[in-house]
Prior knowledge:
heterodimer; A: alpha/beta; Rossmann fold; globular; B: mainly alpha; 76% helix
Amino acid sequence: MLTLENAQVQQDGFQLSADFSVPEGARVAVIGPSGAGKSTLLDAIAGFQPLARGKVILAEQDVTDVPPGKRPVSILFQDNNLFPHLTAAQNVGLGLRPDLRLDAQQKDQVQQALARVGLRGMEARKPGKLSGGQQSRVALARVLVQDRPLVLLDEPFAALGPALKVEMLDLVSDLLEGSGATLLLVTHDPQDARRIARQTILVTDGRAQGPVPTQALFDNPPEALRAYLGTPRP
Amino acid sequence: MAVSAVQIRRSLPGLAVAALVAAFVVCSVGAVLWFAGGGGMPKPSDWAALRFTVMQAALSALFSVGLAIPTARALARRRFPFRGALITLLGAPFILPVIVAVLGLLAVFGRNGVLSDVLALFGLPPLSIYGLHGVLLAHVFFNLPLATRIILQGWQSIPGEQFRLAASLGMGPAQVLRFLEWPMLRAMAPGAFLAVFGLCLSSFAVVLMLGGGPKATTLELAIYQAFRFEFDLGRAATLAAIQAALVGSVVWIGLRLSTQQDLGGGLDRVVRRSDVSTWGLRIQDGAVLVLVSGFLLVPLAVIVTKGLAGLPQVPVSVWQAFQVSVLVTLSSTALGITMALTIAGACVRFRWAEVLGMMGIAASPLVLGTGLFLMINPWISPSSLTFAVTALVNAVMILPFALRIIAPALRGIESDYGRLADSLGLTGWARLRYLILPRARRAIGFAAGLSAAMAMGDLGVVALFADPTQATLPLEMYRLMGAYRMEAAFGAALILLSASLTLFWIFDQGGRGNVDA
């Protein structure tokens, strides 16, 4: 599904290299100390960060030089995932057509997506009139209508409380069940990884290692991860 | 982050417009310089104009900043009713037509003004406002508020904790001045001085009305006179070349010192201070504020009262000029704001585009006008293009102000929502409609209001080009004053003042519509 082939990012003296594949339909956590390059990795996959070397291959297509909006990817950032001046329905509708010229069927699709995330009847509200959790739900509804084969989540629920975050992760899980999309989830919380991702990519020292089973990784963490988690040596 | 092909493509229109503006300015100045070659060496009277230009600008800046320091200090450390209103009033000169303010000052400080009447009660001779001191008075009227706002910003940039620390160390006002306020003033005052100095270098309408004669003629006025009265294009070109070199070098220095000026707001914080609660200082601050507000408000009040009385005397030519002015102003504003928006879009990636767009400020309006005149003259009669040229030059002149307001807004939008928009494939028209226009609405409205008010009140290029049958409202008002039809002039002044304020208000309010941010 996703392959990074000898990919390398260089940015103001910072360097990140990655060389791995993620199979279709996998749910993968991306974990590592802050500043290690988790977000940079997602930026490179989404197309915000040009590669100095190597290739990004998505669904058997080389997308290394394809701009972000044209890649088969949907992404949620840490914040600013919604336009505050547009309604919930408009924000979701942008996932279908960036010029918002929706036909009746597409409008229907927006309605259904909002209903699916539990926001029936809130189509006309602007983000300012929604709670933090509801805003995340709108963003997820947009991911749903985008229906792209790869979903990137860059800690979009970090500002939510623990209970709400778990609720959102379960909702993500649930939505992906239907679409069969591949998921990459950046997190700094091992609990998130255990909850939703069977595999984990560890990013340390300017290197993103290929996905390994989450359970095994945390049961027997390598040195770099142990330092980050603060677990004592065995 | 590296600049991608998409970003370059998106910036192309903005870069093209910025290049066009720069080319327009360079061609106008170039035409002037080329023609000046035939104008010969500057004469002694030209050097006198240069000396007077620099001298009056320096004195204007000195007085404005000198008075701004106590005013800003009083505003920074006092809390009183109408404080917000007074700070708003300090922003007003930007949207006040120069010619209206000068008429107001004449009505207060002139030979037949309020102050002369009071002096006559004591058997004293009337005041004369013409000459250097009149020019200085008007320049201080316009620039004291600007300087005050810049320096007030400096005061408010001193963290409140520092004043609390000073209080806990037992410092009195003198020590606070020495350790906290003086370092800030040393950083801010030169920027304020330079800003006022630069603005006064190309002041035209003030000097046209209050200066004149061999002793009080600026370069800008001398260009106009060489044009209108001597029909000496060569001499006008020589003068314009000197003026362009002078203003250009000051702007160049200014850009290097670049103090960031905030035309918006955010000046409403008052630091509670225990060291300044003595009665002596309270009276001192109170007196400063009363005098300054009186100086700013009384001329305006006189315009309103005399204007109301004069409205019935207003000839129909004023209303015709009013219509012309509104049309010319709306064209300038539409053109200027469209250019600013396009260039600001490119500035997100390419900061230097902003410098190109600001080049209009380096050439004075009369230099641009002279250049255009020289370029047009061989082909068509310039007076047939008076209003088009006026609209064009005004658009270029308001561009720097509009850019200063819109470019930071667009940078903020791109840094907050640019990635989201990119990930959704929001490009071209859709990006403009669903991201940029709604979020930059406030900045665009404010910039458009400011631009419209400035263009409405402008008396510059139009005076150069217009034949006697053509007039904008400021020019028509100037002609009424020249014909000593003062009642009608006051009526026209009130119309012009109302039009400027209304235009500003409409655009600014338009930008404040219902936006849930």
